[in-house]
Every structure is written in C-alpha cells, then in structure tokens.
Design brief:
Oligomer: homodimer
Number of domains of chain A: 1
CATH architecture of chain A: 3-Layer(aba) Sandwich
Helix content of chain A: 40-55%
Number of strands of chain A: 9
Structural class of chain A: alpha+beta
Strand order of the largest sheet of chain A: 1-2-3-4-5-6-9
Shape of chain A: globular
CATH topology of chain A: oxygen-dependent coproporphyrinogen oxidase
Radius of gyration of chain A: 18 Å
Largest interface: A-B, 20 and 20 residues
CATH superfamily of chain A: Coproporphyrinogen III oxidase, aerobic
Strand content of chain A: 15-25%
Distance between the termini of chain A: 52 Å
Order of helices and strands of chain A: HEEEEEEHHEEEHHHH
Number of helices of chain A: 7
C-alpha cells in the first residue's frame, strides 16, 4: 500500500506523462490532416504570484491549429490552505484545512463542425480524505444528426467497456452523473451527447482506482483519434459553422454559469488563462 | 403624492414609451447609415409558462442589423412571491414576501468596432420598500485609443450634467459605483470606460426620482445618437474586429459570472431569451 506522498507522486507524474502523450498525438493529427505545422505552446505558471510561498502551479499547453482550432491541455498540482469559500464544501475539509490537488484537464474545439468538441479531466485530490475524480464527454455541433449519434454510440460503447472492467455497474452510474452534470437548466438542454463523470472515487484499492484513471486518459487518446480520423474529411458549409458557433455559446454558458472546475479554479486563485482555456475560439449569441 | 399603484403605473408606462422611442431612433440610424431596412423584431412573453397565474411578463425587441449587429431593448414588469434565494437579499423582503419590478434594459453591440457597445437599464422595484435603480455605461473595443477616450469624455460630461442637476455630488458617487460594479476581478480589468450606476434610490421625492429616471433614458438616446453619427463612418480593419471580439468575450464573462441582472432574471424565472439578450453576436477566446 502506497503512503500518501507516494500516491501524490504517482498520480501527478502520470498527469504529466499523459499531457505529453496527448499533445504529441494531437500534433501528429494536426500535421497529417492539414498543411500546418502548428505545435502546442507551453506556458508554466505558479499559483503564488509573489514567489514567496510554494503553492504549486501548472503547465498550460495551447495549440491553435487548422484542424484543432483551439486545443488546451493543462496539468496542475496545487496545494495550500483552503479558502473560506471552499471549507466544508469538499470532503475532509474544515476551518484551516489544507488541500492538495493534481490533475489534467483538456478541451478541444476543432475547426470543422463535423468533428465533435471534447473535454476530459482526471484528478487526485487530498484533504483529510483523498479521492479521484474526472470525466470525459463530447459535444458535437449538431446533436441531432445521424452522424453525431453514430459517433456518440461508439464513444459510449468504449466508455462502457472500461467502466465495467473497473467496476460492474459503474458505467450507468457515471453516465447518469455526466448527463446530470453537463446540463444547462436555464436552457433545459444538455451540453452535448454525454460521456462519463465521476467524483469521490476511493474504492479501498488505490492502485485499482489509479489504473482506472490511467485507462480513462489512454482511452481518450484512442477514441478521439478514431473520431477525428472518421470525421476530419467530411464536407461542411456555413450553416454547419453557424450551428457550431451556437453550440459553443452553450459551452461558454455552461462553463461560466455552472462548471465546478471553473469555480474551484477561481476560488483557489488559479491561473486565469488556464481556467479559461476551455472557452471556445468563437461563439455566437 | 402618488400612491404605490400610481407609481407602478407611471413608471411601467414610461419604460414602454422609452422602449418605443429608442427602437424608433435606432431604426432610423440603421436605415440612414446602411442600405438595410432592418427593423426590431418584437416578442412578448409571460413569466408563468402554464398561463394559470398572472406573474407578469415583458416585451423583448431585437434588431440584427448592418449598423447595429445586435441590439436588444427589453421591457418587463414582473411580480409575485420572491424565491427563497432572493429573500433577505434585497431590501424590504422577508420570508413569503412579494415583489413587483418594472424596467427597461438594453444592450447594443454595433458591427463597427469603432462604435462603442452600450448598456442602459432603469427600473422601479417595490417590496415592503420601493426604489429606483439603473445605469448606463459604454464599452469601446479599444479602451486605450484616443478616439475612445474622447468619446468617453463626452459621454461622462453629459452624465455629469444630469446627475448634478438631479442631486449635487451624485455623479462622483454613481460613477464610482459603475467603476466598482463593471469590473472583472478575475481579469483585474474594467468592462469598459464606465458611466453611471445607481440603486436603492428613494430620495423622499418620488416625482424627482422618476424625473431623473426619465432623464437618464432620454440622455441615452441623445448621447448615443451623437456617438454613432461621429463614429459610424470611421474605417476599420480585421485587427479592430479581432479586438472587438476579444472585448466581447469579456462582456460575456462579466454578464455570466457577475451581473446581478442576469442572476435576478435566472432566480426569478425570467424569460431566458430576454435575460441573455445582452450577450454579443460573436465573441472570441
């Protein structure tokens, strides 16, 4: 059984490895399917702006390409005292409590309205307790089209596989959690076509939980690569682009009005560019 | 001295008259300075979706034109029981309290990055107390340019005139209130170049307060008309447009993360299209 420091080390190092792998794969797709040689721009940041305290930080990577109009893949490992706003709102916290959180978060907004946008996030958090959380979900521009439904079917099938392998019955639970979470009550509509969402994962076997987190990351790469390859050459027109800009406006609404990650970032004084990396390159209302 | 029903009638009727006047003036500008004959589209809505209760409603008017890429001018008069979320948050409310609120709200996003975006809102609210609130502020795309600073100077001069005529010292107070309110703490930047903002106005002379509210509305028309005429023919390029889309992204962030009007609308079950009418036709992150 690993002690807590080993768990922190293993998880945070994995998030960095995954960031590298994902960025490499996206750069290859970008150069294979366009004449661009766009690469991710890397920017490191520290949470303590004055440089006096060690409060952690992160590495933000953003590519603005021809296939991936805006792709952001961030890792961060932050720690310190929980702000008053968060005390008692997350498990194992109390006044004066400290926290440690490490994770990877990515959002990809492809240029073609035929390629769905995708989001993936996995994290390990410790307070007096410790747990994993994360999720992955897709947002096609046209949620109703047969094409999109076919993609969603494949996407969910792959997710079901890894969830059921991790724990029987977890797919249904995580799928529902995703549907409930990525929902815009003021619009009475879902953000996209779902996926999985999970939090407070602590099964008793840290190694198994960590393995599931790794599998989610690797599955993201394989599944999204296939989706991109299958859709990147589909023709699209101005109407498709308008629908994409409309869909992106809902993405903005969700992230600014509802997303817990955005709130957590703002309330723990995270890097503003990293927090808002998820926002689309364009949106229309 | 008017009784409360007369005050409600006078104020809510004024907001309708002002809506008419503003829309007419904007349509004239639209047709004078472009080859479009775009008009406002009018949509009425009721707050009670089932039509069983009378909870008020409003009239939304939106024009998507060639000069005014998106102009929304809404009036609403809503009433009923305050939701739990709002009880004790606004003056004169308590559990089970009812409210009545009438107002006009407009946001104009011009196509040319050289014409500033503008927002204006005035309202009369009653609970156990009653008061006026409102404000007007401009957001040029390029906050630093000499052109914008010149416009802001003229804008503030006119606002100072009407504030000081209403009440000595009020301009400084309302200007500071505006600067404090239209500020994005997470960006450490102001939304635009300010204006005036005021709330809980109840001087003891309802007629004088009402007259000030009318003057704010009429001043909006005169001042914005002059600003549009002075800037509509200025040339602009793609860089200016990009800056406009950037500025608009901050507008979205402010309205979704901070704006009290948006929160009030969502929490009083207002019309979602009317609440989000303020969001720009396009934005970039």
């Amino acid at each position: 059984m690993k002690n807590i420091d080993e768990k922190k080390k293993t998880s945070s190092e994995w998030f960095k490895v995954l960031q590298n792998n994902i960025c490499s794969e996206l750069e290859v797709l970008e150069s294979n399917y366009s004449d661009s040689n766009c690469k991710f721009k890397i920017k490191q940041w520290k949470r303590d702006k004055n440089g006096l305290d060690d409060l952690g930080g992160g590495e933000m990577r953003v590519m603005r390409g021809k296939i991936f109009e805006k792709a952001g893949v961030n890792v961060s490992t932050v720690y310190g005292a929980l702000s008053d706003k968060l005390v008692n709102k997350i498990p194992g916290s109390e006044k004066g409590a400290s926290f440690w959180a490490s994770g990877i978060s990515l959002v990809i907004h492809p240029k073609s309205p035929k390629i769905p946008a995708i989001h993936m996030n996995t994290r390990f958090i410790t307070t007096k307790k410790s747990w994993f959380g994360g999720g992955i979900d897709i947002t096609p521009s046209d949620k109703e089209s047969l094409e999109s439904k076919k993609i969603a079917k494949f996407f969910h099938k792959e997710l079901k596989k890894i969830c059921e392998e991790y724990k029987k019955g977890s797919y249904e639970k995580y799928k529902k959690w995703c549907d409930d979470y990525f929902f815009l009550p003021h619009r009475n509509e879902s953000r996209g076509l779902g996926g999985i969402f999970f939090d407070y994962i602590d099964s008793g076997s840290w190694n198994q939980d960590m393995k599931f987190i790794e599998t989610v990351g690797n599955t993201f790469i394989n599944v999204y690569k296939k989706i991109v390859i299958d859709t990147v050459n589909l023709p699209w027109n101005i109407k498709d682009k308008e629908l994409q800009c409309h869909r992106r406006s809902r993405y903005v609404e969700f992230n600014l009005l509802h997303d817990r990650g955005t709130k957590f970032g703002l309330e723990t004084d995270g890097n503003i560019d990293a927090i808002f990396m998820s926002l689309p390159p364009s949106a229309s209302w």
